[in-house]
């Protein structure tokens, strides 16, 4: 057995992953994207200075840091693991800015709401795919209470032009079935609107991705604002609450990023331990480990770590994955190693993320030999007897690249052929060192 070598130093057009016979080891996770970007914005809106430990360093957090800087928020990086943000107490020093949001939903959606409420003259735009990701429900909710947000391209999508409106909001309403990030954005901006009267945000119809709202409420609480919750249908912020710095805050490891390593341990031996998330996590994606347990994997949990160990062939799964849409992609690829057909249900939101993930996942799983049924909101995966080596397209979607590294795990006797992953650098959205970290747990044996 030999250790696979880190291979991604110069961002090649593709990476060839040799068949991996066994995985084992421990991985220190990068910071949670969802917590990092919320924390940055809340720290900027707070009174006082916030020291942030273990912020994620990736494309998505860079665009948030860049935007805050352009808005006149001062921040410094003290060392590799420590940032300091000087809050401006709900104001923004700079009232005109052109902001590049990349493809970061956790940046553009909350910033749109905050900027519309604070007021100024701002444009927000991103990469081409960002201009195809919906934002109309959020814009409608804000404009209905007096915000002035216009589309400069296709109605319903970024780019946006935000001008100073006159917001009078005591009741707002937002649809919850396209992205929970719209509700998150309104919740985070609500204390800025609730100066002398309560603000209630009602959710129209079904709310998807609910655990992400729990992350939002948890972090708002840490920054001094409590939200009254009427189930999942209404949220009220009482007046007079202002964001106040908690002093310092630690960003947990990313639970979605954990899914690849836990799945690797589940498929190819293990144990693999992820460090940085565990029983204490506020991220819904830790429930990925529950899905692995249903698939017959042995999971052990500590307060700040989770470990997965394989028990032979995975059991096929049929489940609703609405609560963990990101980590569910990892289940779709793990399903290649199951003893029958797996069905992932209630995942329509996949279609409006970094790519149309239902279509992309179906196409690429077929390349390795799976039989796949792609529904409007579900995916059914029947594994092949033996995985075919393939060239995997990643659609500028970090999760496609990370998920398909798992297809190099040679649980199915395919020998000597590499799995090629095109455009591996797309992992930089949330996990720039992903392939090096994966290589650290992979043991290859070609003979
Ligand atoms: O609020 C968040 O941090 C996120 C919410 C989810 O999006 P949707 O609510 O659009 O499903 C998730 O897919 C995304 O990666 C992060
Ligand atoms: C959907 C994702 O990102 P975003 O925060 O841009 O929505 C994701 O990371 O899988």
Automatic annotation (TrEMBL):
GO molecular function (one): 3-phosphoshikimate 1-carboxyvinyltransferase activity
Main subcellular location of this protein, as a coarse class: cytoplasm
Residue stretches making up the Enolpyruvate transferase domain: 19-437
Keyword field contains Cytoplasm: yes
Binding site for phosphoenolpyruvate: 33, 105, 133, 181, 357, 399, 429
Record pathway: Metabolic intermediate biosynthesis; chorismate biosynthesis; chorismate from D-erythrose 4-phosphate and phosphoenolpyruvate: step 6/7
Entry keyword set: Amino-acid biosynthesis, Aromatic amino acid biosynthesis, Cytoplasm, Transferase
Superkingdom field: Bacteria
Protein family membership: Belongs to the EPSP synthase family.
Protein name, per record: 3-phosphoshikimate 1-carboxyvinyltransferase
